[in-house]
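Changelog entry: the Methylase involved in ubiquinone/menaquinone biosynthesis record was regenerated in this release. Current contents:
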Amino acid sequence: MTSSFTVHDASGYEQLMGRWSRKLAPSFIGFAGFAPGEKILDVGCGTGSLTFELAKSADLAAIAAIDFSPVFVEAAKRRNTDPRIEISQADATALPFADHAFDRALALLVLHFVPEAGKAVAEMRRVTRPGGVVAAVVWDHLGGMAGMRMMIDTVAALSESGRQLRGRYCFQPMMQPGEMKRTFIEQGLADVTETELMIRMDYQDFADYWTPISAGEGSLGKYVTTLEAAERERTEAAVRDAYQAGRPDGPRSFANVAWACRGVAP
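Regenerated structure tokens:
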């Protein structure tokens, strides 16, 4: 499996997205549900936003967490102090677990970075017991992420490469209304439901927004690192202007919507 997400440093990811995935995790758990004594799989755990939120429940028997990135796996292992949690490096499209090994298989902000997203859903279904739950959530890049679209639309207005970035970013897998639901149904899951979850991303100032991007984290950061020095400075100035919107630099808050989907394993 390949991943379209770029990560250089776990702390950079935390500033770019980890802090926001932690805000999303409780709502996603509420949607996916859990019951006492269950064994849960976290597919694409990153630095552990969902894993450690799940671990706040003393009623769970075990939590397995996997990620494709060794950087994320190492960071999550360093944070872990819970004997119920086992973290390992693995491929979401070829999970190293037996059939029906878990009561629930969950994926927080992962499937849109998996080129073979349908195959990952099929694997999540395979390792979930009959009657268990498969659930996933992804950002709505096209219509639900005002703060990120602010940069995307700015760079699209500056250059053809920016326009190409916008096309890739806005139409990643699983992001269109009903797309995850159709995939869940195609992979044999029953009682499939889809809903929207929302958080707000609150930044202290432009530097808080821009620092992880300028360091090359994520797809936006990867784009910035491809620019020549002069074009990078031009891009930063334009995005700063969009962020500040004619007012002094300082706090800004952006609404961010995610698509969430769950189904029952046959």
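Residues 8 and 217 are 6 Å apart (CA to CA).
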